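1st attempt posting a full record on here, be nice pls
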Amino acid sequence: MPIHYTLEPDLTPDEFVDILRRSTLAQRRPVDDTAAMAGMLKHADLILTARLADGTLVGIARAVTDYHYCTYLSELAVDQAHQRKGIGKELIRRTHEAAGLSTNLILLSAPAATRYYPHVGMSPHDSSWVIWGEHCKQNR
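the predicted structure (as tokens):
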């Protein structure tokens, strides 16, 4: 079944939470905080979706970028039923392309996904540092 990739800045918080739940990324996101989820969408620079022909959302990439130097890929979520079909790799590629290929694409991996990112061409970086926000401390 063909996948349609679209920049979708008006994605609803309900659809966002739903795809996070179906990808298991919801375990590390404040999905029960409606205002936080809406704010995450409102203030993102790029929201790229992957949908089936019938409109079913099967993947999302949400990024913050300056379009010149860096792009932070905050969420890469693919419905578990549609993983291992190249959707995540294509979302990464299209996000980087939309932000500008001159930007450094950066993400913090979910613990269960650390083996995935080298497979799609990403390199580990050993000098990242984080001050965890209140939503994140219990979900690292």
